[in-house]
Amino acid sequence: MMVRIGVVAAVLFSGMVSAQAGASTVELSSQAVPPGATLALSGSGFGKFQSVHTNKVTVSGVPALIQRWDADLIEIKVPSKATTGPVEIVAGKKKMQAGSVTIVRPQIDTLTPAAAERGGVLRITGKNFGMTAGARDPNSMFGVNDVVIGGIVTRPKRWKDDQIEVEVPANAQAGEVIVRLASFDPLPDGSCCRPVEYVKSNAVPLALIPSVRVDPISGPVGTKVVLFGQEFGSARGQTDAVFIGDQRMTVALWKDDVIVVHVPLGAESGPLVLQSGGRRRAVEQFTVQVPKAVTITPPRAPIGTLLRINGEHFGAYSESGATPYNFMDFNTGDNRVEIGGVPAIIYRWNDNRIDVWVPYSAKSGKVVIYRSANRPNEDGSCCAERSAIATEAGEFTVVTPVVESYAPKSAGLDDLVTIKGTGFGAFLKTAEHTELGLSQKAYKRRTDLEINESDAGPTVVTNVSRTEVLFNGAAAVVQSWTDSEIIVRVPHRNLYGIGKRGEFFDNLATGPLVVRRGSWDVLPDGTCCSPKQWLTVEAGSFTIEAKGLPDSGYFNSNRPDANTNQ
After folding, report:
1. How many CB atoms lie within 10 A of CB 237?
2. For the purposes of burial, counting CB atoms within 10 Å of the CB of 553, is it exposed (0-12), middle (13-18) or buried (19 or more)?
3. What pTM does this model have?
4. What is the C-alpha radius of gyration for the chain, rounded to an integer number of angstroms?
5. What digits encode the pLDDT tens for the residues 232-289?
6. Of the candidates 266, 319, 255, the residue with the CA atom closest to the CA atom of residue 288
7. How open is the CA angle 524-322-352, to the nearest 5 degrees?
8. 146 — pLDDT class (breaks 50, 70, 90)
């Protein structure tokens, strides 16, 4: 019959030492063990386990906690107070000598690195750490072998007899590193167990350095890279710098808790190295990406069209500034898109997609994406060289709308008119009340906009559409709009009269039928945008007939309650 006390652990039998006790030979699993380790005694004639009073094992006279007792195998925990000396087995009145065991203490030889970051992995090299599975060790019922860093107890990730790997906790302080081996000894009567006791290694000092978070860790040249941390210094010293591989990066901002740098021209993927306060360390691996355009949609269209460029690694649009966040200063540098050599209006710029409005002055030709970057001076300041990396996206053809026919030539209110032709492009459903500066001005208070009040100042938008059909100057409701056909409803305003403050026209029934598209141009300084300009195509003359007018009785009796008794 086999009796187990505690939990059974796997034991590796090596370095066996034998002793003769009567006719029985006892072998020890190890001749040198640290306190708290499991020691196995194998042999024969141990008999059955009766009780903790009858069956005992001592190390140099100190009782050990019995974990397993079979007729041919005994496992014990080396007691914390044990010293080098003989191991003795007691089974009732029978005593057997199991040889001698050397008690060793855990010792730390080196720490790698000598100065670690919180959250980083610390490698402890030494000897006599024992074998353990840490918190999962089946033999560690009441205490777990651990590592103390700056007073904070940590649970190691890997544990071997000569090497331990542990993650430095976020709340650790600079101080000493100590390896602790847990040991739980039997009570005086031999039962389990005394409170856990720890055998400590020598203490080795560890310096902690502030951790650094890098964002982003990939991007094309010109990418703004921000290092968040502590103790960078209130100002950049003469030797302070940031490198990508061996190439110095352009420093745009250096503060005690944040550094802003830009990926320079010619940079290659490699470690991002921070050189600060006389210390140099790699804080992250950075991947330099190459912009690539895959498709442009549509390949041919009139002005004012939203042109989509799909691809990858375009980076961010406004990251040329010195602030930690791209939209704080909205500095776009020389990032731009040109269509046939004419700058387009940027509507959306994502890493894998760019949308631009085809400008009024656009010409057929290549669509090219330009991404600005620079090369720093020898001290890391800007700039020894400025340039823009060009990426071709494809060919674009600017189309001029052509009206081939329209019918009918006259109709009543709300009647449908069909205009056929080519090059009308897509219908733009969005109005432009907020102009294209929305992303820059989103957090600024603005005066409410009014329509058709041209003398009210710069906040006025006199025309908010960019794809429209006009009946003698008045816009019609668009029912459908394709590249070859437009269907609109005859508007009411012309027949009723139209005007503005101080000016009114009471009869605009006959006049030109016009299809037009609007767009802008980028200003010479690269900002957006010039006043809206129109490409106008006249279909011919159209007459609005006096049909579809409301019942005249509505105007003569416009009080429903006048004909009731209520």
Report:
1. 13
2. exposed
3. 0.68
4. 42
5. 888 888 889 999 988 999 999 999 999 999 999 999 999 999 998 778 888 999 999 9
6. 266
7. 70
8. confident
Single-letter amino acid, residue 201: S
Query: Which candidate, 373, 353, 392, places its Cα nearest to that of 288?
Result: 373
Q: How far apart are CA 137 and CA 478, in angstroms?
A: 76
Distance CA 408, CA 413 (A): 13
Amino acid 497 reads G
DSSP state of 407: E
pLDDT tens digits for range 480-529: 999 999 999 998 877 777 776 777 777 778 889 999 999 999 999 888 88
The mean pLDDT value for 416-430 works out to: 91
| DSSP codes joined into one string, 380-401 | S-S-SEEEEEEEEEEEEEE---
- 3-state secondary structure (DSSP) of residue 555: helix
Q: What φ, ψ does residue 163 adopt, rounded to 5°?
A: -155, 135
Helix (H) or strand (E) holding 552: none
Task: Quickly count helices (H) and strands (E) in the chain.
Answer: 4, 50
The 10s digit of each residue's pLDDT in 333-382 is 899 999 999 999 999 999 999 999 999 999 999 999 999 999 998 888 88
**If residue 377 lies in a helix (H) or strand (E), which one and from where to where?**
none
DSSP string computed for 425-460: --------TT-TTHHHHTTS--PPP-SS-TTS-TT-
Side-chain half-sphere exposure of 247, counting CA atoms within 13 A: 19
